[in-house]
Amino acid sequence: MKYLVDTYRSAVRDTDTDEWPFECSKLFIELDNGLELSFNATRQSAKVRLLENPATVAPISELGPDAFLEPMTIDELFDALSKKKVAIKTLLLDQSFISGIGDWIADEVLYQAKIHPLQAAASIPKEACAALHMSLKEVIEHSVEVDAVSSHFPVEWLIHYRWCKKPGKINGMTIEFINAGGRTTAYVPELQKLTGDQAVKAAVKPPKKSRNKNIDEAESESEEIAKPKGGWKTTQSGAKKLPAKRKLDTSDDDDTSDDYGDLNLSDDNVEVEASHPPGRDKSKKKPSNSSSSGEDYTEHLSKLNEHIVAFKKIQQEMLELKRESSKIREERKRLFKKN
């Protein structure tokens, strides 16, 4: 007797007009009673193998006990967990440990057993192991009973909230998402807490810095303005100003935008007007020790004006193209109506 290995889907032809078998069909079987089966692999990565004894060939031979047909006892489960140091969510997804547990079932049983997904399997106490054993039994048996139709699951189950993968609430408690075992994992921090050494490490672990430095430094910047080298100097009116010996660095375009003035990008005027820093009397010009900085400043303004003019020219050309396109469309409509 030969067996077909790997899962396949069955379908019955509804009408003669449907494409059958599908273009992506890997296996097509026609039975004596007229039933036709087609194994469809839309991703073109599935395989079908014909074997004498599938149970002796990987990956079937490497599967652990079936979670539904061959459930472990509490003692067997506790003994098996005590030998594994990986996170419990990762272990439950390992089909060589227990076969038949997928992503949502793992999240569900851990939620009902009140076990954190990242809790090391070997650190789970006997009481928590018993709760996990019970939730495994109840969730899997009920899922099989209703053919895994989620609408038939109890309303208090986590599965009804986890698919959106956005923070929400279940029974008034917040649902959060983390990565466990390479999978997006839903859990309820208020119920599922790390225990033992992991709880201590989590408590003293500093918060992760954001990738955006602006966010990390926002609070400190809002409370204290960075002082320049040499410190602030105070005028008679009490206002702060930079030290007299420190020259204003205009080499960084991003930090000296105010020194280059206000840009007027209207259609009538694309010139750049240099504005004076606030608090400085325009009538009193401080003599410059060097003309090089002034020349660089003027050259920069000149180049900037050239870029703005070029940009405006491109805008005008795009507008003309748009108008021409509209004329062509109108002409096509006119000819279509005429014909």
Automatic annotation (TrEMBL):
PANTHER family membership: FORMAMIDOPYRIMIDINE-DNA GLYCOSYLASE
EC identifiers of the protein: 3.2.2.23, 4.2.99.18
SUPFAM superfamilies (alphabetical): S13-like H2TH domain
GO BP annotations listed: base-excision repair
Name of the protein this chain belongs to: DNA-(Apurinic or apyrimidinic site) lyase, DNA-formamidopyrimidine glycosylase
Transport keyword on record: no
Region (Disordered): 199-301
Coiled coil: 304-338
Keywords: Coiled coil, Glycosidase, Hydrolase, Lyase
Biased composition (Acidic residues): 251-261
Keyword Lyase: yes
GO molecular function: class I DNA-(apurinic or apyrimidinic site) endonuclease activity; damaged DNA binding; oxidized purine nucleobase lesion DNA N-glycosylase activity; zinc ion binding
Domain Formamidopyrimidine-DNA glycosylase H2TH DNA-binding: 63-155
Origin organism lineage: Eukaryota, Viridiplantae, Streptophyta, Embryophyta, Tracheophyta
